Protein 1
Amino acid sequence: MNALAGIGVLVTRPQLQAGNLCRLIEAEGGTAIRFPALDIRPRADRAATRAAVGPVDRYQLIVFVSANAVRYGADMLGQKRDLRIAAIGNATAQALNAAGHRVALLPTDGSDTEAFLKLQEIQHLDRQRVLIVRGTGGRELMGETLAQRGAEVVYAEVYERLRADPGPQVLAELERLWAQGGVHVYTATSTDLLENLIDILTPAGKELLQSTPMLTGARRVAEAEARLGIRSPVILAEGPGDAALVEALVAWRSKPA
């Protein structure tokens, strides 16, 4: 298919998370330009984290917030297969299934914290212990809300997000391509990614950013754009999943000029 023929898409996701989105863009005839704005690394003190969490079977619910949380935190589950596990989004659920764990709770009307918190099964959590497996400095909405519903919340922060360092040559090549019209859309699927991209770009790159549409599946990222002083037009997908992002991109591309 050629719905995205002639369209260059700057994919800013971390290296290990960008592959499927790039493949879908290229399947529609577009050009996926990989430029990770964020590095994901396991925390060096994971052994201390596991010790602080204690035995996982003491928790009535274990929530994995992302595929990265599974990648760096699923080993805490060991060989236990009778745990009640929740996933935020299909990618997280697929990662858990691939690791041999069954997902008991998964939002069906979204792939974010807000959708998860609507699930009927977690509206009342009196004295239940809930373990949230996430990265350092994640959003507090989930933990705060579950605590308000009576849960005893414990965090296992198993990875950290760091601003990527592409190096001056890679950055110069990207900005040269962009200035020549090779980048038509950039992705920002989280506020962290958007903030890091802004920090990485030179002043000339920031000017290019202002006139380039931003593709995102999270309304909070679109709202953060104005706060960060960016005026990019927004292509807002139905959700953060790869298929939804490409569907929104194709719909944008098909609109009359």
Note: Residues 8-37+168-254 form a domain with the Rossmann fold fold (CATH 3.40.50.10090).
Protein 2
Amino acid sequence: MRNTLLSGKKILVGVTGSIAIYKALEVIRLLVKAGGDVKVVMSEDAKRFITPLTFETISQNKVLHVETESWSEELSHIHIGKWADLFMIVPASVNTINKLSCGIADNLLTQTAIAFTKPILLAPSANTHMMLNPITQESLTRLQSFGYFLVSPESKLLACNDEGIGALASVEEIFYAAARILLKEPFWENRNVIVTGGGTREKIDDVRCLGNFSSGKQALALATVAYLKGANVTLITSGEAPEFKAIDTLRVTDSQELRTSLEAQMRLGKNADKIPYLFMTAAISDYVPEHVYSGKLKKETLGESYHLALKRNVDILSALDKKGWNVIGFKAETDEESALQNAQTMLEKKGLNGVCLNILKEHNRFGSNQNEVYFIGLDAMVHLPLRSKFEIAEQIMGLAQSL
């Protein structure tokens, strides 16, 4: 993630009286780290847990609460609502949830919410019995029908020693949900996107495998950017996975598992109103062992030398039914002289809409956090100079939109 991701975005964070309030500090830290301008409004109950000074220190803005409200200084529930692009209530107590569903505005925080005309995100936190109470559940359903966004609580051991649903969602889950609301784009919103990533590991015996050094970092960056732009994302990977749950992630090991999962997801994606996209970032083994052995092959039995018989693997990208999909392939090369021609051949031979060529060097080797890519389409080629893999993913998504 780049530190200007939320630059220019104004975010209001409302905090209510909950033991989970300390996590709101970390959410604000992430928002500020991403370049967001953050202000805080506190309920009086929230001040029993953490002082306003702490939130002022983290947000670098004056906190709105009963004692600081000033109409002459434009620090009020009306002015602050006009200022913000997004209102997040983290944590949202059961008391606040049920009040809002009935339109009750009897404190500064609920007044701010009722007067707010832009998106509101709720991150509930409460005791399990309070959260599962039919009244609370009906309130959450009503608020969602009114257009409120919800980051569902988690099930775990709570501060009260009850175990069950009610724990505040992870700070990463809340942060990315907020960023998605602020960054979504009409082109990508509700569009199905599949990203494959990581290197396949082809089984030799029950201990060893044939693999490669692909980390899956570029695929993870692409999946994250697509999610932030509003897409319905499925990540099929053997490599790195998201730190939040909103991206549907399928873990695979070998090329056969990847192919099975991919074909199933592509069949589901065809029913979409918008043309779906496939980013085939996975590094799939060109060859697989001819024989797979049970148990562990012993060096004492194999002798001083051992020859592993391999057979050519199925070319999954060529074999896929790509009709109705925009498909971008990825190609890693080490020979600069032949790389562009090989990528062009891949584009034409495999019936793709685009190819991302990665010429491996020291600065963008497998597992690095940076990349340099040539985006090759049917009509033009664009060079994407060395950047973080997240920034490269943003550029790839922008170019893919024009296919």
Note: The chain has a mean pLDDT of 93.
Protein 3
Amino acid sequence: MHKHTGMRRLGPMHKTFLTVAALAAVLTPLGCANPFETDVDNPNAVVEDALNNAAGATTLVNGLGASVTRALTAVYGPYHAATDELTWVGSREFWKNLDDGDVADPVNEYTDGAYPFVSEARWTANYTLPKILAFDAASTLRNRRDHVRAHVYAAVIYITIGDMFDDFVLESDRTVAGAPVGEANMRIFYDSAIVFLDRALPVAVAVADIELQRQVLGLRARAKHARAAWSTIKPGRTTPTNPLISDAGATADATAMLALGGGTPAAWRFRLTPTANNLAGINVGFEMNNRGELRAGSQFVNADPTRPIVPAPGLAGIAMIDPVTGVASTTVANAIDACCRPAVGNNVPMTATSAREMMLILGEARLAASDNPGFLAQLNASRAVDGLPAYGSVTGNGRVQLEYERKVQLYLQGRRLMDMFRFGSRDPRWLPTSSANTKPCFLPITYGERQQNSLAPQPNNARLCT
């Protein structure tokens, strides 16, 4: 097996043209002798070679960010519907199937619809990074923050693929098919993300940008923690006897991130927020807050009795009870208000990492080392973000407290399915015979990719994790 470096240089590109002005700007019907003439010059056409100009670096990076954001809006629905975080309340059967725990179906229309956006974002990352690196090496990059931003966006999509998919095609180009990496090799998406962030950190330090340093260190801690969590489940696809993660690299990065700039604010978070211009056609915000196919899960919210497809207003709509206060969780209330009410609409903010996630990573490492006071200190610091009182003691072995805090503090952030599998939790909605209820299964390479790529798993409709 060849060494994976986290970066593959793409082969020769076919020249393409991008239309950047409205059609009205290039048509002059009254002055044309032949209204069907097509042999015309378009001064607004931009050839792909223009993207080799360093002046376009910021535009390239912004395009990557938009592609990654759009991919998240597409895949968040199928992924979270398969967890206890979202539940099906509408009429579309394939949402019901995911809610039932049928995670592995490659024909599911929502999983299949999301896959191309995720694949596009992956490809765009691999297209953009070599150009940004070349500009920087030639000292033509006008703003070195673009170097950091490009690597941050690339890391987000690579971590997302590692978290959400059982297998993925990495080596495909626009006209050249590639084979999947294989389920046992999915850790390379985390390894690649770590390589990207390793490159980005010295530049973020050189430009003295504390915000970018927080993003880099926070994402790198998340990648290292997630890689270790992945390793507890695969390749055996079993619930581990000891699910606790204590990764020295994740701990070091989390500690460094929280210490940045004299101390990172406890409420700090790095979010990607879509606009109307970078939403997938079927996106999680629309499916929740407009169409009403999905709603926050019943462990988290109480349905509005007058309109059961949405949570009841205010704290009456929160079903999750805080274990210390004994009343509705304000942590969940804040999360639901930010994502899952009609007033939010389609543009649901998606948190890539946060200070409180760093605290949870550190707390878990302390618990793994049997340092109960250290564990409580981190959990209580993360709870304080929402003004909640502290735990007074560790209950049992502490795992229930850890899972609960990760469940509510990382709500709708792409972590839950991995946590459910490693902590041995099950969604009450999962059918006994479903793939998720049988063994740890994540999203598959889907039908559309299999149809177009003969190197992808065949037959097209086979569930490979059952």
Note: The radius of gyration is 23 Å.
Protein 4
Amino acid sequence: MPKEKKNVWEMTLERLDATMDALSIKPGMQKYLRQPRKTTEVSVPIKTDAGTIEIFKGYRVHHNTNRGPAKGGVRYHPDVTLDEIKALAMLMTWKCSLVGLPFGGAKGGVVADPTKLSANELEHITRRYTFEIIDMIGPEKDIPAPDVGTNAQVMAWILDTYSMDKGHAVPGVVTGKPISLGGSQGREDATSRGCVYCILSTLKVMGIDSTDMDVAVQGFGNVGGNAAKILHDLGFKIIAISDVSGCLYNKGGLDPFDIDAHLKKEKTLAGYKEAEILNREDIFSLKCDILLPAALENQITEANAASIKARIVAEGANAPTTPDADAILKENKIFVIPDVLANAGGVTVSYFEWVQGNLSYFWTKREVNLKLRDIMEKAFYETYKFSLENKVDMRQAASMLAVSRVAEATGLRGIYP
């Protein structure tokens, strides 16, 4: 009988249960940490450009807010589900805890394909979605940010809708907004830069004093695209880049800046002349030093994990690896930088933006990047030290550190009333 496929929520709970058992967390606390604090589903009706009425489904989930206000992105994607949003909200809780941010986890989403909607329709969806969840969000309780399918412009619409409701400007309601509206320098490439800092730290602990390494990047959106550019500038060789349209491969190296220009013009990787075009799944079987999955969840599975030949997997995406695949990567002695660590750069600079907005005092890009490096390196070495001392892999180490801190905060606060 084939194994029943689990969704990302079930896999996230499975990992949490294993972590809580390893920490000997009491049953009552285990029940508490498994459950989202608040789950909201809303209808998002809009009038389309054609004059028809369409109804979209939206979600916002708060997982745990015992360490601070909820923090998490909003994604627009046709495959958004409540279970996915719950899982991502929980991962945000652990991510903020691991890097020491005073936030809890949240996530939001709308079931929509932004590539098939006009700018006018996207604005209407955003404003109506914001109106429907307006009681959940705010600078002191839940601060949304960009995610898959959203960007600084979407954050500007959320900011404006919320501010109009309150009767005054509230720039702290979102992060990842345009610089001219109080956004932070360095926010756009923060997730990618944080991932690169983790890769550089990994090379140090592995005793590798070189950037002459082959890198394959799965997903060429904001995270994958910027990571490829940063690594390219540091001297790494980007040999493969994939997105939904296929995989570009050139053993001699690719120029991610040139590919980005091609993609903006053609809207597809197809037709790029400086590379061989492969199927997008082929990226997982290419020989390389570093594989950087930066797309959606559940991309590295039991079906393709054994074919991965990389020495390092740096998870730029959220939950890109299934538990079954994890076991295969571990058996093959592949060093995995887990998602809650590798992609925490985005929420870290979102925290910086929130702080700058509260102080009305803004930092230079250099200051932002140096502060980001300090936090990412500290979190990496804490996790690595824990993994060595407790003889667990990096994912288990990151999970145990993050969950233990949230459990401690929850226990100290107690349960009201």
Note: The two ends are 48 Å apart (CA to CA).
